[in-house]
Amino acid sequence: MTCPTQPTASHFINGAYIEDTAGAPIEVIYPATGETIATVHAATPALIEQAIAGARAAQPTWAAMTGTERGRILRRAADILRERNHELSVLETYDTGKPYQETSVADATSGADALEYFGGMAATLTGEHIQLGEDWVYTRREPLGLCVGIGAWNYPIQIACWKGAPALACGNTMIFKPSETTPLCALKVAEILHEAGLPAGVFNVLQGLGEVGAALVTDPRVDKVSLTGSVPTGRKVYAAAAQGMKHVTMELGGKSPLIIFDDADIENAVSGAILGNFYSSGQVCSNGTRVFVHKAIKEAFLDRLGARLSSAVIGDPMDPNTSFGPMVSERQMTIVLDYIEKGKAECARLVCGGARLDREGFYIPPTVFADVTDDMVIAREEIFGPVMAVLDFEDEADVMARANDTEFGLAAGVFTRDLARAHRVAAGFEAGACFINSYNDAPVEAPFGGVKASGVGRENSKAAVEHYSQVKSVYVRMGDLEAPF
Ligand SMILES: NC(=O)c1ccc[n+]([C@@H]2O[C@H](COP(=O)([O-])OP(=O)(O)OC[C@H]3O[C@@H](n4cnc5c(N)ncnc54)[C@H](O)[C@@H]3O)[C@@H](O)[C@H]2O)c1
Ligand SMILES: O=CCc1c[nH]cn1
């Protein structure tokens, strides 16, 4: 079996596809069937050297272009991404197993939004003038140099663009290493950027496992590392980057709370809980997997949730009617099934789901546990699959303390009709991305990122510019300079 739209080689370096079969083979598995659809090869040390040398050499010329010129290329790439939405969505579906119903509206689209947004912003990046009597200071906003992006497997196109677009807009070059589980889509992003006029060497893609990522992170010629991945990987990558005093962005995992008060619109709250637990088969970093439901409405909430989940169309991800697909890999399926067994062993009440589906592919249906308590493993650890934990509460202060009682701090949500309470709760959340009467919206205009163990820095929005550029100040004296001797 082969995916109809797959790239022609494993890597993209200095403006061209390149293959080196000396690198260890990495099989790309279609999660809906378990079949191999492609084989890529991990980057060899020679290819890593070629990519770093090329990206370093390309950076000064790219930075010397005006922001308008750089932005025009990024915006052209955004247009091509949109024109090829179908082809890219098919590839993303084969890479991840996510239903085409989702990928055709959420993935290339989100990548194009980032290229368009940062392309538009490139010409506006300026320093400032600070008058000091007759002297003055001006600042220059300068690129960092060579940035490395390292991706997770849940949003391959989005992650490549959320990192690449602001990096390139600011005048940096980038080497992007996709997850070894979903290596295909980032290559298409590189291909499209070059079709849009990107000079060779400015955006490169190298395949490989953690050791290729580690080789990039530790290279002294790399100035910044942006990782999307788990907290354990984040700790390693952050520590390695610190040895070289490199800039970092860490977009890591979460175990986010979603609080549903007794005055909430139940239908909307159920929608939020579904979007925050079962979109992308639960493989979204910001998911609100600890759903605190006020005791007074808990059974009504669970009844409506069960009814709505029974209408999920689980099946062939390429069928446009399918709304729920498989887990990304057999490994991830096993991890999630282990957590489900822990939930059962801890005597949480299994409301629906709870076992692998009897069909080919890595399918676990939407799974809901009720009567979950704060100390249960399924309420404390990130599962990264379609498993919702429903916990009871009665008092606002109590539920806020419980919601924040976690090492993570990526996202949080609240459903209530009381707007004063909604804003009070949002202010009290220890989380980077909060939602009121909604869940998991991630527009490019809004900062995205976590606090506590969930990360460092922000992607998207004007905030991302701070993480891909640095400010130089220049003091200008207008008169004579006195000295003590
Ligand atoms: N905060 C966010 O924006 C965000 C978005 C998506 C996913 N995630 C998180 O990602 C995780 C799931 O993705 P995953 O399983 O691919 O994560 P992971 O941490 O296993 O791997 C992430 C990436 O890091 C690379 N890597 C592993 N070890 C490395 C090392 N020592 N040095 C450099 N690179 C290394 C991997 O090859 C992969 O490309 C979840 O925890 C999820 O919450 C976070
Ligand atoms: O997976 C994390 C990033 C994200 C959140 N919503 C869409 N993408």
Describe this structure in words.
Residues 20-474 form the Aldehyde dehydrogenase domain. It holds the Pfam family Aldedh. Keywords: Metal-binding, NAD, Oxidation, Oxidoreductase, Potassium. By secondary structure, the protein is an alpha/beta fold. It folds into two domains: 11-253 and 454-472, Aldehyde Dehydrogenase, Chain A, domain 1; 257-436, 3-Layer(aba) Sandwich (Aldehyde Dehydrogenase, Chain A, domain 2), CATH 3.40.309. Helices cover 38% and strands 20% of the residues. It has helices spanning 45-64, 67-83, 85-96, 100-106, 108-121, 156-169, 185-195, 210-218, 231-243, 266-275, 298-309, 330-345, 377-380, 396-404, 419-428, 463-467; strands spanning 11-13, 16-18, 25-30, 35-41, 129-132, 135-143, 146-150, 173-177, 203-205, 224-228, 247-251, 257-260, 290-294, 349-352, 367-370, 387-393, 411-415, 433-436, 455-456, 469-476. The strands form five sheets. The protein has a seven-stranded mixed beta sheet with strand order 14-15-16-13-12-17-18, with helices on both faces. A six-stranded mixed beta sheet has the order 9-8-7-10-11-19, sandwiched between helices. The protein has a three-stranded antiparallel beta sheet with strand order 5-6-20. A hairpin with a 2-residue loop joins β1 (11-13) and β2. α3 crosses α4 (100-106). The termini are far apart. The site of the ligand O=CCc1c[nH]cn1 has 8 residues, from loops.
